[in-house]
Batch of 2 targets.
Target 1
Amino acid sequence: AQSVSQHNHHVILSEAASLELGCNYSYGGTVNLFWYVQYPGQHLQLLLKYFSGDPLVKGIKGFEAEFIKSKFSFNLRKPSVQWSDTAEYFCASPRSNDYKLSFGAGTTVTVRA
Amino acid sequence: NAGVTQTPKFRVLKTGQSMTLLCAQDMNHEYMYWYRQDPGMGLRLIHYSVGEGTTAKGEVPDGYNVSRLKKQNFLLGLESAAPSQTSVYFCASSYKVGGWQYFGPGTRLTVT
């Protein structure tokens, strides 16, 4: 069964700093991978997704993620964060041959102005 | 096109009371899900449905029941609320296996 882990629980940054959030998955077969963002008091929104093809995936709001199969990783990056990026970020992946998503525990990102 | 909607947005219950949370989607999705979100634990799947008239247990189904009488609606019931069920509940839907899920705005439930 697929499991997803996120390494950072809380990250605090200043505006314009670069951001990288770690995500590792356990399943060795074909995987679909997602990053969701949850702004304070709001619901989860899809930030970006990977199904196949180019391992560097571009998402909304300047975010990108790189799928590295050999490392079972799908890390999220943004070169220069803004105060409005303050949110909780979740990595998720379906369990093998399944439609149920396995979520990481989430990483809270606080961007200081 | 409203996407996924949930009612109510907030609710406070006393221990032992019952309630039903309603989720509706207008995207004609086959698959619907109920999650609970607790600090430091991410989202955990309570129940899900792969189509009208079907339901199945997720990771944490105890204390909850669900029904999917219509394709667009997915109801989550608490028969006898307990303080451990204090949480934020999210409904989601998806159109295909392995696809991403669209989430509703959530219901914040407090059980005292």
Target 2
Amino acid sequence: DAKTTQPPSMDCAEGRAANLPCNHSTISGNEYVYWYRQIHSQGPQYIIHGLKNNETNEMASLIITEDRKSSTLILPHATLRDTAVYYCIVRVAGFQKLVFGTGTRLLVSP
Amino acid sequence: DADVTQTPRNRITKTGKRIMLECSQTKGHDRMYWYRQDPGLGLRLIYYSFDVKDINKGEISDGYSVSRQAQAKFSLSLESAIPNQTALYFCATSDTGTLSQETQYFGPGTRLLVL
């Protein structure tokens, strides 16, 4: 699985969009980009995933660059409950292991 | 009711003791996983099982063993606990389903302290 690089921490004001970057310059053509988050020692929670097209669901949007070497997770209107560690993971579909790095600690403030 | 449950939620034990952490799921998933998390670090995979007859080692299996008693149950054992096994342990499940849609669902975690 390709390695990912994320900033260790980010801040965001409540109600504003939170844009969390992830670099995966060694990603292979058959690897997907997944995002999970972990709220204060709870079990990680799946957010979204994509291959090459941008994706959106009720939680977030995922923007993947055309060369697929980086991506951005967007929380359109961050709330205090979005304060968490966000993990960007790349993996091959069908190969079920998830390799977690250290993630980005997002702090949403009033 | 939670789909993935872990027992106990907290455990304190002494060096050399054998302990078992249990995981149960009601999601009907075939695949189950055990991870550990150390403070300030990401999760690391200990063992995983793709069905009842399948057991695989993860990144850090030394000092651990597992048992898949049924589709819904996956237990993690520390045969002789040592202090550096103090950590937060998570169980997770996933469905075979559509391969690209695979999502892992995590339990609430077990906080283990080895004295």
